[in-house]
Structure formats: C-alpha cells, structure tokens
Amino acid sequence: MNDIRQQLIDRASASMSQYPQYKGQFDRYVLCRVKRTIKTKRGVAFTKGEVTICDPDNFPDVGLAEMCNHRSVWSFTNKCGTLLDNSDLELL
User: Is the CATH code 3.30.230 the one for domain 2-91?
Assistant: First the structure.
C-alpha cells in the first residue's frame, strides 16, 4: 500500500510542480477509496471505488459545523482538491 500511496503522491506533486504553493502539499496525504461516484461543476471528479489520496485531517473548523466532517481529497481527473464528506470515503 505504501508503494501505491507514494506513486499517487508523486503523480499529484508532478502535476502541480509548476505551482510553488503545492511543494510538499501531498507528503502527508493518506490513501483512501471513494465509495460513490462524485460529480462537481467540472464533471465527474471521482468514480465509485477509485483509490486516491486525501488529507489525513478533517477540514479545519472555520465556524461552519457542516464542513467539519469533510476532508480534502485529490481529484486526478480535475487536478484539484475536493472536499468530500467522510461518509463518502474509506481510509486505507
């Protein structure tokens, strides 16, 4: 599993290498599996069963209680982080 995790981190880092703010961004990310297909305004961001990487911590409490059960998950399709509810994720 660590090999897969590192491959995904390397892939995400490479896709964002031109943006200095992403340097080291994914180093602490963990593997997860998305439990259902997720559509965003940009289209399908995740397909059911897709393995990707996510921030190990929940979204910080910024006064929006409904956001505290979410975490940032990297979409390789959309090349951006997407906040997903924890119930839509299985941490691996």
Answer: no
